[in-house]
Design brief:
Length: 295
């Protein structure tokens, strides 16, 4: 199928394969009823796909520039993981956004790396910074089996709207890794405090925000999260605001998130054949797992 690719022709020849879009694969027959938003005729997976198109993919295309301006400093433990990988093997950044984890300094030699994201506008930003990238989702990556010597998926898996799709994405990551290679996944945690220490997300709450349980109901019947507060539910809509200085107007976008409970990410990985968890930890409001492909 057609792909948008920002990389050299030699890289294309070595890595790419034809893929079957996840949406064309057999779907569960479970039904969901939500008459306020989508009617009674869609399966859970069809609903999840529709939700992601409307509340993830289309939103990031619109906010790409503003979002990129807020994403410039790599998280230290992610950078540490990347620098631990062999530089002569392919590193795939799945959900790369503007490419902030590509081209990190500190390694002994240039790294062979590739970014992947569904947002064309974010990929254009990454490309303008000199990074290679391709457009795909987390469920169907057009790369050959076992081609990656390392993989990261940072703050992207939590945008998938069903457990089936999240598990399918982990299985796709496992397929891409060579035996013995490792991957790192970060997802947003439902609990934004570790012990009595608040995450950086909560610390950015400068004033007193309403922590009540009352929540506005948004699209697909999902609760709208109050920014910079503890999460009250796992499946939520998180607002993002952009400002038009010329018009003096503010527009609010809502992105879908599934925030993870403790141990939930580990269970997904352990349910995936041929991989196992090497390390798991909590890092500034995120649950994180390093996993390895079995030899």
């Amino acid at each position: 199928r057609d792909m948008t690719i920002f990389c050299s022709s030699c890289l294309q020849l070595l890595l790419f394969r034809k893929t079957l879009p996840y949406s064309d694969r057999p779907k569960p027959v479970e039904k969901i009823s939500d008459p306020k938003s989508i009617g009674d005729c869609l399966t859970i997976e069809e609903t999840a796909s529709l939700l992601e198109r409307q509340l993830v993919h289309s939103v990031y295309e619109e906010i790409a520039g503003h979002f990129s301006d807020t994403r410039h400093k790599p998280w230290p433990r992610v950078a540490q993981f990347i620098q631990s990988l062999p530089p002569d093997e392919l590193l795939l950044d799945l959900g790369c956004g503007n490419g902030k984890y590509l081209g990190l300094e500190g390694g002994q030699q240039p790294r062979w790396e590739l970014g992947a994201d569904y947002s064309l506008n974010l990929l254009k930003i990454a490309s303008s910074r000199g990074h290679c990238g391709l457009r795909c989702d987390l469920l169907s990556v057009p790369l050959r089996d076992g081609v990656c010597g390392g993989l990261i998926c940072i703050a992207a898996l939590h945008h998938l709207a069903s457990e089936t799709r999240r598990l399918a994405s982990i299985r796709e990551m496992a397929r891409l890794l060579r035996p013995g290679a490792r991957g790192l996944v970060y997802v947003w945690a439902k609990d934004q405090e570790s012990g009595e220490v608040r995450s950086s997300y909560l610390k950015q709450n400068k004033g007193k925000r309403d922590e009540s349980d009352d929540a506005t109901v948004g699209e697909f019947g999902l609760p709208v999260h109050k920014n910079r507060t503890q999460f009250k539910a796992q499946d939520v809509l998180v607002p993002w605001k952009t400002q038009n200085e010329e018009e003096g107007s503010v527009k609010e976008w809502k992105r879908f998130y599934h925030v993870f409970e403790s141990g939930e990410l580990e269970k997904l990985i352990e349910a995936t054949p041929d991989v196992h968890v090497v390390d798991s930890y909590y890092d500034q409001g995120n649950w994180c797992c390093i996993f390895e492909k079995s030899t």
